[in-house]
Every structure is written in C-alpha cells, then in structure tokens.
Amino acid sequence: MTRRTAFAMAAGTVTGSLVINTAPASADAPAPGRPVAPGANPVLRTTLITQVTPRNNWRVTAVAIRYAAPIDTHGGVIPPSAFQVTADLGGQSAARTVTRVYPSTVARTDDLPDAGRPGGYLVIELDPDDANARASGTDPLPLHGAYTVRQVADVRTPGGDLVLAAGPLAIRNDDVINPVVADFTAGSFTDSTGFELAFRLYQPEGFVRSPGAAVRYPLVVTLHGGGEVADNNVTQLTANRVAVTFAKPERQRRHPAFVLAPQIPLPRPMDGPDGTDWTDPKVRAALVELIDAFTTQRPVDADRLYLVGLSSGARGIFNLLPRRPHTFAAALATAGWGDPSTMDGITHIPMWTDHSIDDPVVPYREGRFGKPGTWTLMNTLESAGARVTRGEWANDLPKAEFEARSRALLNRARRAGSHVLFTSYTPGTTPVSPHFAWAQTYENDVVIDWLFQQSR
Question: Considering the chain, what percentage of its residues have pLDDT values greater than 70?
Fold first, then answer.
C-alpha cells in the first residue's frame, strides 16, 4: 500500500466497508516485476460519465473504473449484480440500478449489444431513468465524490479463472466527464449598450485543425426555453439536446458546423411584448449583435445561418425572423407561439415546425399571452402565401418509424413545391410532458439533413 493510498483510506468514510478515493494512476501502479495475486488489480481512477438525454435532461449514465492492468474476461459476461453503485446527492443516499458491466479500452459507453473489449477500463452502465440519476437541478449538482462503487461478487472467465476479486473496499469517483458538453467553449458577449449574454460555442474539428483554411462552415444558433434562463452558462446545453445534438461526433461528421448556444441571464428580462425572454428588446438586440459579430470573427457561410429553438426559444424565432427576414437560411421551431400579423414577411423562409396537440404549457392553437400557437401561425402563414405541408403522428414512435413518417412528409412537400413543414403530435403520445415535443426533433436525421440542405 502506498502512503497516498493509506492517507486516502484514513480520510474515507467507514460504512460497513472501507471507502477510498482513488488516486492518480502513477500512485497505485504495481512495481515492475512484482508478482500480483490472481484477481488483484488496483483501481487507479473512477470517473462518472454523464449524458444529455432526449427526454430526461442531464443524467449520470455510467461509471468508468480505470485499473492498473487490462481486464480480459475471455468472452465472459459480467453480471450487473457483481457491482453496487450508490449516489449521495443533496444529503440523500440512494442506490443506482446497474444495467450492464463490460471492459473497455476507453472511458465511454458502448451502444452495441456485445459491448466491450479487453482493456484498462471497466464500464458500469446505469439506468438513466433512476430517480436519482440527474446531474443537475436548476444548476449542476456537485458530482465529484458523490458516487460510491462496491464490487460484491468475483468476476471470472467462463473457465473459472479469477479476473477481479470482490472485497470489502469501496471506491468513490474522483472525476466527471461530460461527453459533447465538454467540447463547447464558454464565453460572453457585451453588446453596444453594455448588455451581456453568456454563450457556449462548438467549433468544428476542421476549423480547429486549420483555422486559416479557406473553408466556411454553417452556423447553428440555438435558442433555449424559459426554464434555462440562468447564470451558469451550462443549462442551455444540458437541460435538453437542442444544442449538443448538433455537436455530437456522428452529426459533425455528416454536417460540420459552428454551434452557438447563448443563455439569457438572471434576473430574467421580461420586457418583451408578451412577457417572454427572447422577445425582450435588450436580449433580442444583444443576440443580433452577437450573431453579426460571430459571423465576422469566424469563417461562417453567411448563406447558411440556421435558427433552432424550443418553447420560448421558438417564440424567439417567430419574433426575430420578421425583423431579419434575409439573414437566416432556415429555422426549426418547436412548441412555439407568435404574432400572426408578422407572418406575411417570412413566407419565403424554409421552416420545419412541430407541436404536441395536447400541449398544456404552450397551447397548440391558443399559444401564450394572447399570441397564437404553432397551428394558428402555420394557418396564417399559408393564408399569406406560403405552401405548408402538414403531417400528424405519435411522438413516441420508435426512431426508425418516426423518421420514416418525417421522410414521407418531406417527400410530399417536395412534390408540392413546399418549403414549410408542420408536424403535429397526436394527443397522449408525447412522453414525460406533452410540452416536451422536441425530444425526437433533434435526433431526427431526416429533419437535420433537410435543415443543412437549405441555403439563403
């Protein structure tokens, strides 16, 4: 036992078994040439893996344990019951549900059914639907040292050889990684009046590798909902997938782009004509200046600026587009509302809108604060001359079927020469809350491919 490990043990909490905080890798590595007992493989680091999920916001979805030596089960399956994981958050301690355990060469989850390969990490996947799985409330939760992992059964190969021995020691996480979220840099922008907007920015890998190259990238500007108004400059990424879905590796490989995610600060501005946030004159003016400044500071394709927003963010889209009718190439607006009198100025802009018919927060027809919802706006847009292609289906369909419906709607729109699409979700089919219509919107490859095909 090293001195550092002894100190960590002394500082740990004894709750029936000893709890230690794992130390840096160099401290626990076995000395070269020293024999190691079967199943003895020191833990070097324990890391929580978080994920921004489509419906459940920001969650702790796995624990990755780094061992001194590679783990090889020789094809054996590690039972979830071999490990117990407990979360201590806000003074409450509760067990997490372990769903899968497998070795890996990297500290990340594997979606394949036969996940895992021999490597220095053991990945313990957790049920994201656990009541205590969340990684944030209004602000991020203090997750460092909040999770305890105990191995309660030996891990063996199919032939019975010992791979990892169970024991009385438990470990706590000493790190947290936030895939995709961590790829956004944090910044702020102060406009000409002195009003400040915080923002997060994703920069495409091609630009990072060669910032001087003569390549221009699309810009996706994401407008968060009213629940993400805060001073933490992170909730606009983690409360839903409106921003991170555009930055995930598979999406960036297909559509490399800058992703700009501003956040409205507290105390929340409420000077807009209908009491919302993105319509507040101070916020709207700062947003416009931020977008204009960004397009001059980065190699942005000015013909491929896209606006994406949900709830009050969609309200912001319907408010901003008539004021800048020749700036944006297309927009995605979910569960929004707006002013019908301005629709005749945006009939030329490609849009894909969607809304749950039974939305109680922003009613589908009536909207909020005397401003109509998406259904009414699309009718008004059509009366003003735009050809609107409509579709309705359940919002809880499997991804493949959901995208098939979207593809059929898009094909119908193309045959009709329509550049405005409107998806309605059948009552009772939007999980968690009928207001959360956006859960499948940004996972929908058909919709996103359509967005990036638009050019001003």
Answer: 91
